[in-house]
């Protein structure tokens, strides 16, 4: 999905929010944001830790967890609960999309269906409400896994 913001501009906002929260600036927080931004996909805390360890061997998974919680609270990243492959994270500065998740292999596919988007707005309207956001995940057995499990 298309990025809505440059990495530099996200890091700029991150520094502001770190200051606002009375925290010390840490290279690791910026590293987590960079890794997620550059990957463009949905990473597990383990994958993020591994990738940061390439540059900083002292990175621990528990500090990555703490950072992920902070970044999620401040809306720099989104959490995706995948069942099969646990919690995954993606950068928030991507165009809106929903997810198809394979229950066998854990593959994640991003999609946007304009009709579904519109219908959700209409459903909220029917209840005299204004849709603020939504979170839709389709759990599937993907084409690859269907093929592998034939016969
Ligand atoms: Zn699959
Ligand atoms: Zn996504």
UniProtKB/TrEMBL annotation:
Binding-site residues for Fe cation, renumbered to this chain: 96, 98, 117, 134
Pfam families in the cross-refs: FUR (PF01475)
SUPFAM superfamilies with a match to the protein in the record: Winged helix' DNA-binding domain
Keyword Membrane: no
Cofactor(s) of this protein: Mn(2+); Fe(2+); Zn(2+)
InterPro entries: FUR (IPR002481), Fur_C (IPR043135), WH-like_DNA-bd_sf (IPR036388), WH_DNA-bd_sf (IPR036390)
GO biological process, one term: negative regulation of siderophore biosynthetic process
Assigned keywords, A-Z: Cytoplasm, DNA-binding, Iron, Metal-binding, Repressor, Transcription, Transcription regulation, Zinc
Protein's cellular compartments: Cytoplasm
Subunit structure: Homodimer.
Biological role stated in the UniProt entry: Acts as a global negative controlling element, employing Fe(2+) as a cofactor to bind the operator of the repressed genes.
Family statement: Belongs to the Fur family.
Protein name in UniProt: Ferric uptake regulation protein
Provenance organism: Helicobacter mehlei
């Amino acid at each position: 999905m298309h990025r809505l913001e440059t990495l530099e501009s996200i890091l700029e906002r991150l520094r502001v929010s770190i200051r606002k929260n009375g925290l010390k600036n840490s290279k690791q927080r910026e590293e987590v944001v960079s890794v997620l931004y550059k990957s463009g996909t949905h990473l597990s805390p383990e994958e993020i830790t591994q990738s940061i360890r390439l540059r900083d061997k002292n990175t621990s998974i528990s500090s990555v967890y703490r950072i992920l919680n902070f970044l999620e609270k401040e809306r720099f990243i989104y959490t995706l609960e995948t069942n099969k492959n646990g919690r995954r994270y993606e950068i928030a500065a991507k165009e809106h999309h929903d997810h198809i998740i394979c229950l066998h292999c854990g593959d994640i596919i991003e999609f946007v269906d304009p009709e579904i988007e519109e219908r959700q707005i209409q459903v909220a309207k029917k209840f005299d409400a204004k849709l603020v956001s939504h979170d839709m995940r389709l759990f599937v057995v993907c084409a690859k896994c269907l093929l592998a499990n034939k016969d």
